[in-house]
Every structure is written in structure tokens, then in C-alpha cells.
Amino acid sequence: MTDKDNALFTTNRQPPNLRSSLADTLMAQIESGDLKPGQRLPTEQAIMAATGVSRTIVREALATLRAKGLITTHQGLGAFVSKDPNPRSFSIIPNDLQSIDEVLRVLELRIGVEYEAAGLAALRRTPEDIERMQDRLDALDTALEKGGYGAQEDYAFHRSILVATQNSYYSRLFDTFGDIMVPRQWARLDKMTAFERQRHAARMRREHHAIFAAIRDGNEGAARRAIRSHLSKSAARFEELRDATNFS
Prior knowledge:
Radius of gyration: 19 Å
Distance between the termini: 50 Å
Largest sheet: 2 strands, antiparallel
Strand order of the largest sheet: 1-2
Structural class: mainly alpha
């Protein structure tokens, strides 16, 4: 990596959301012309050295760019800026989620996708997948224990399930949407009492642990039921919020 490349990545060292920040940095370089069409991106090792992030974070950021059509990868050669990046024909952006009804539509989509993904993950997960899911689950537990929303950690856990399907199209679909698939702006945790927040956190942990246990144990049916139950309960909670507050 050149001194210029190092300078471009310096401001990206250890941000709060590593994957998104790295992906945003690379996208900005592509859009500004610093990284030109057809140009080879720095190696994973070079990006790691310049930014201080892990190989997993680098690969997830590159997967995001690939899902957006901004880069292409070639076995043994590395990643290259697309010569003619294609705009996404379909996406979900924050402005799409301006009402609880829109959130519910997204949850309907997630149920369809993640129900099948959870079953496949239970059948195909590797020891590495289980370790990754456990790490993401631990991070989510920590965020909830501290009273946070855990939106990024929630997204990361669900994405790790998609990765475990061994079908990259599942994770690439989520990469297209990003962590807005977990719409924390409607969670209304700030309106809850301390007891209500604790109960909410306990419920979230219980549901996510059930999903993980089923996938870890290779129980396809239980994995499908657990993910459907979790997302359906989320939808029911949003419906209650909408009805109680007259949001739509």
C-alpha cells in the first residue's frame, strides 16, 4: 500500500461501526475517483495494517461493496473497482422506514428470508460458523446488559446466520440493506421504565439464544421455528406500539 493509500485509511482507524465505516471509506474513494474503475484495491493485509481492523471486518466491508456492484473479485488476483458500477435495482434505505407500517413490511421480508436461512444454517454450519455466531451473540448480550439498543450487534448476529448457510447470496442481500434491517428508531427504549428495559433485554436474549442453540445443535426444524417466533414477536410488539401511539 502506498503512503497515499495509508493516508486515505488513517481516519478510519477503530470507528464505532467498523464494517460500515470501512465500507464508507472505500465507497468515498471510488466515488471521488481516488480509486479508479478497473484499479486493484489494496490487499486485505494492507488494509488491515492501515486501519487496525480485523480480517473479518475487511472481508465484510468488501462484501458490502461487492453487493453494491462497486467492486469485483477474482480468485488469486484480489478485488478491483468495477469498470461500470451498476446501481442497485432494489434497496432499503433509512428514508424508507418512516413509519411502523414500513417496519412491519420489512419484518415480513425478513421472516421469509431468515426462516429458510436458519434451516439451511442448521444443516450446513461449520465450527467456524458456530464460533462466529457465539461471538456475535456475546456482543449482543453485552450491549443489552449495558442498556443499549444493540442494533448493530443484533444485525451482526443475524448476518452470521446467513453466512452459515454457505450461500453468499443470503449475506449479500443483508449487506445491501445494512443495519437498518434492525430499525432501532422505532424501538422506543427511551420511553421504557428501567424494569421494562430489563424485561425487554431478557426477552431479546432468550429469543436469540434459542435461535443459536437450534442452529448449533443442527436442529433444522427448531431453528426455523425459533427465527420465525422471534421475528413474529418483534412484529407483534411493533403492532402494539403502533396501535398504542397511533403511529402508522
